[in-house]
Design goal:
By secondary structure, this protein is mostly helical. Helix content is 78%, strand content 3%.
Length: 328
């Protein structure tokens, strides 16, 4: 067989192999009595997530007061949270509603790839927002000059670009592994460790790539966040008035809450031991990380922000007024 005939033959074998491979996401199947309650809970969370994040984007676009770097980053954080949740939650809801919990090889890899893009983007978007708060508190007079529209766009583009690079790299190494038949994943999401664990080939390289990538992203983003807030803390403590300190801290409170929940959950998942008894803890941590946090972010920022609440009130009032006029 010549070279020209060999390549199509190899490609056909690989395609046949992947087309026969399926993954079974066990999710919460060991609790049959909780399937309906869990479905309703996750459906409610997903609905709030979609409305909250898309609502936040709309509010920021409508109110000219919110056309600032901080809200520019927040609108992209809301978009990332919406996309991340939409990548994970619909499949979770489907698996709670039907008995067939299988997902194709292509579907599993695509879910992982998109989830990877959005989670890495969120990690660095939160770091970018920390830098934004550093400039706002430590150099308030130069804030509008330092955080120019061009720089803000570059920082956001870099976050998305790095998310895509990391996801494609990990996906490439996962595709290098071999799989056969039905593969059981004891989770509700196609996460890299679980995919690597059910492969037929040596997972050493893929495991190391996942570990190095996760460690680099976590450490580098936390360094940016911790350095930014170290300078913010020093600057705030030097302020003469208590009122000035409270105002400075209040501008950072929402972001600090968001990063504490986000990175705290990541550390929790890293610290859970890899044993059968800890599977439930991993699933609960994964739920918080993939489903709950995208819902919390818009709530955290909206509940603590007067301008956002004022815009929402005006929107609701305008809609109600329009409905009252139309019913007359």
């Amino acid at each position: 067989m010549g070279d020209g005939e060999l390549w199509p033959h190899v490609f056909w074998d690989q395609e046949n192999q992947t087309s026969d491979v399926t993954f079974i996401l066990l999710g919460f199947s060991e609790y049959p009595d909780l399937q309906v309650p869990l479905f309703l809970v996750f459906l409610t969370i997903y609905t709030v997530t979609v409305l909250g994040n898309l609502g936040m984007i709309m509010v920021i676009r409508i109110n000219p007061k919110l056309h600032t770097p901080m809200y520019f980053f927040l609108s992209h954080l809301s978009f990332v949270d919406f996309c991340y949740s939409t990548t994970i939650t619909p499949k979770l809801l489907e698996n709670l509603a039907v008995e067939d919990r299988s997902i194709s090889f292509t579907g599993c890899i695509m879910q992982f790839s998109f989830a990877g893009i959005f989670v890495v983007t969120e990690i660095f978007m939160l770091a970018v927002m920390a830098y934004d708060r550093f400039v706002a508190v430590c150099n308030p007079l130069l804030y509008t000059v330092a955080m120019s529209q061009r720089l803000c766009s570059l920082l956001v583009a870099a976050s998305y670009a790095w998310g895509i690079v990391c996801s494609l790299t990990l996906t490439y190494f996962l595709l290098e592994l071999s799989f056969r038949g039905n593969n059981i994943i004891n989770n509700f999401v196609c996460e890299p460790a679980a995919i690597v664990a059910v492969s037929c080939s040596d997972p050493y390289v893929s495991q190391k790539v996942v570990l190095v990538s996760a460690a680099f992203n976590e450490i580098s983003s936390l360094m940016i966040i911790l350095t930014s807030y170290a300078f913010i803390f020093v600057t705030v403590m030097k302020m003469p008035s208590t009122g000035g300190r409270m105002k400075a801290f209040s501008t950072c409170a929402s972001h600090l809450t968001a990063i504490t929940i986000f990175h705290g959950t990541i550390f929790f998942l890293y610290c859970v031991p890899n044993s059968k008894s800890s599977w439930l803890m991993v699933k609960v941590g994964s739920v918080f990380y993939t489903v709950v946090i995208p819902m919390l972010n818009p709530l955290i920022y909206s509940l603590r922000n007067k301008d956002v609440k004022e815009t929402v009130r005006k929107l609701v009032f305008t809609k109600l007024l329009g409905l009252m006029k139309s019913t007359r």
